[in-house]
Design brief:
Distance between the termini: 55 Å
Structural class: alpha+beta
Largest sheet: 4 strands, antiparallel
Strand content: 15-25%
Helix content: 40-55%
Strand order of the largest sheet: 1-8-3-6
Length: 620
């Protein structure tokens, strides 16, 4: 290649991802290796055979289309796009066969794989950007800006903060012996068990108040002074969730439990540290707010927390959990205020939430998805009470910037305020006859989470739902057909218009054409694997644990979900900072080389998973 072309090639590479992440010296060395080729419209590059030379291709001008051997579209590529990553792997099984066709006259830069690999050996810190595995490239894009100290304690997992110094004693153990154990390990708390089950909690404060001050005999069994049925947290819960439980229930200690195994204890002393995230204090304000007006005034503070999390590039799952805890607090406080206004409920009930709220994936656009399960003995007069309560709460949530659900999946709708037996009958009907409306109703309420009232109602209803689905021969297949009916936008960056009319024309709906596809697929794999978890990634992980997904597929979908979530949250953040209304509609022209490349990887992962799902469940 003529030396006179190298500066021009270098200048081009320096502006596109991932070459713009490389030091200038490495950029120039790659530019010197490049070969140039021209394809006329219709000319092809065939991948998958035995090649003496392999290349990483960079589209300089023109456009290409990749198709698999079965004709399925793999991706559409335009200027600044790269392809040929999979052939960087020396493992034949990792290389994906496909054909690349020029859609118009196209100029390509070719980087020989052998030269690129040799250069990356000299610069190993930058090898991830050119990894043959897509999940590695996506991981490299999810860089974290905040350090652990900057993030603050409340977005850490409980296991990172809790003390593992804890006493576990049988309920018949004498008080003196438990007190000696507490002193020996310097623990403020003892967990009391009976027949292997956790039945109570005793703190050093209990020893002082209930034994020393009360003058109780030290030889009495410890069960006489324990606090029964203690609240617990899991090791993977956020500290923010634990602190919220402490505040809501006025407790100072929470055992960290997995199964029936006590792993540690989290106390209020663990929380007294400097932190950047003020969500815990917002939850405290919500708890003591007296009116809807008081609560609505806290909306800017909620937005500020969201912006701080996104700006710091805290992972999307943690952002979702934090915003969910805040939304939970609003719901609970409004229900408490409503009961003060309407009087004591005439019968038992459960307030449940659905959708992103149930999945712990709340963001700044999340609307209301809620319902009421009434006791089976609820009367017509009782239902009038709850209709009034639901209308008040839903309108109050709307006033606090949690919009009313456009699909009317809210407790204010009489369809979603029913006795438990009616809910069960509805679920049975939806699962047995999954026509469009029934399937929509079922999928909205496939993930529900109890928030207020009698928790057993929701547990019983969920158990009925899973039992009905397990015995159905048509529901899962209907879900599969529905989930693959919408394809990810593989051609979004090649003048493909997704929204053809209205104010959102020529934009990508990141929710409809990406995130919702993954959520739907996660539901299928969660149900197939018997998972009772609602979170999208937890469902995929459970499917992997039950051999429904390979490890490579799990890592791919993790990377895709995390990156698309980050793009969506960043889009919302930008809109809010600029004083605009946040939405899910993104102008493809707003994407730079970095977003385009990684979104294409993510969209291709979704398409591959859809194809795999269709084949897998059609065989069953």
């Amino acid at each position: 290649m003529p030396q006179t072309l190298i500066p021009n090639i270098h200048d081009f590479l320096a502006t596109i991802d991932p070459f713009d992440k490389l030091p200038k010296e490495l950029q120039r060395k790659i530019a010197c290796c490049i070969k140039i080729t021209y394809l006329a419209k219709g000319e092809q590059i065939q991948f998958g055979g035995e090649h003496e030379l392999r290349y990483l291709y960079v589209v300089r001008t023109g456009s290409m289309e990749q198709r698999k051997h079965n004709g399925m579209l793999r991706a559409k590529l335009g200027s600044e796009d790269l392809f040929g990553f999979t052939f960087l792997s020396e493992q034949k099984e990792s290389q994906e066969d496909y054909t690349a066709v020029a859609l118009e006259n196209t100029l390509l830069y070719l980087v020989p794989h052998s030269d690129l690999l040799s250069l990356l050996e000299e610069y190993p810190d930058f090898a991830e950007h050119f990894a043959s595995n897509v999940q590695v490239r996506l991981h490299s894009a999810l860089d974290v800006v905040w350090s652990d100290s900057e993030k603050g304690i409340f977005v850490k997992k409980v296991s990172e903060v809790a003390s593992d110094k804890i006493v576990v004693a049988d309920s018949s153990t004498p008080i003196r012996q438990v007190a000696e154990q507490i002193m020996a390990v310097c623990s403020p708390t003892a967990v009391i068990t009976e027949n292997g089950q956790i039945v109570g909690l005793v703190t050093d404060r209990d020893m002082t108040k209930r034994v020393i001050v009360a003058g109780l005999d030290y030889t009495r069994p410890v069960k006489e002074i324990m606090t029964p049925n203690p609240l617990t947290v899991a090791p993977n819960d956020l500290v923010l969730k634990a602190s919220s439980i402490m505040m809501q229930n006025n407790v100072r200690s929470l055992p960290v439990v997995e199964g029936n195994n006590v792993l540690g204890v989290l106390t209020t002393t663990h929380l007294v540290r400097n932190n950047r995230i003020q969500a815990v204090f917002l939850i405290e304000k919500i708890k003591y707010a007296k009116t809807v007006s008081d609560l609505s005034k806290l909306t800017p503070e909620r937005q500020a927390i969201f912006e701080a999390l996104v700006e710091g590039k805290v992972s999307g799952d943690i952002i979702g959990h934090v915003m969910t805890l805040i939304m939970d607090a609003y719901n609970r406080r409004l229900l408490q205020i409503a009961e003060e206004h309407f009087g004591k409920p005439p019968c038992e009930f459960a307030w449940i939430v659905a959708g992103s709220h149930a999945r712990n994936e709340v963001h700044m656009l999340s609307d209301q998805d809620n319902a009421i399960i009434l006791a089976d003995d609820a009367t017509a007069a009782d239902r009038i009470y709850f209709q009034g309560l639901a209308m008040w709460v839903c309108n109050a949530l709307d006033a606090c910037a949690y919009p009313l659900c456009t699909g009317k999946f809210m407790a204010v709708n009489p369809k979603w305020c029913m006795p438990l037996k009616v809910w069960k009958a509805s679920y049975s009907k939806w699962v047995a006859n999954p026509e469009y409306d029934s399937l929509l109703n079922a999928t909205v309420f496939l993930e529900t989470r109890w928030l207020y009232g009698n928790e057993s109602f929701n547990k019983e209803l969920q158990a009925h739902l899973f039992s009905s689905i397990k015995s159905s021969h048509v529901f899962l297949s209907s879900m599969v057909r529905d989930s693959v009916s919408v394809s990810p936008p593989l051609g979004i960056f090649n003048s493909l218009v997704l929204e053809k009319s209205g104010e959102n024309s020529k934009t990508l709906n990141i929710k409809k054409f990406a995130l919702s596809l993954l959520v739907d697929l996660a539901r299928i794999y969660g149900l197939s694997s018997g998972s009772e978890k609602a979170e999208t990634m937890a469902r995929f992980e459970h499917a992997y644990e039950n051999n429904l997904l390979s490890e490579d597929m799990l890592k791919n979908v993790q990377g895709a979900f995390q990156f698309i979530t980050q793009v969506r949250l960043s889009h919302q953040f930008t809109a809010l900072k600029e004083g605009r209304v946040a939405d899910n509609h993104i102008d493809p022209n707003a994407f730079g080389s970095f977003e385009r490349k990684h979104l294409k990887d993510a969209f291709r992962i979704i398409a591959d998973l859809q194809e795999y799902t269709k084949l897998k469940f059609n065989r069953q």
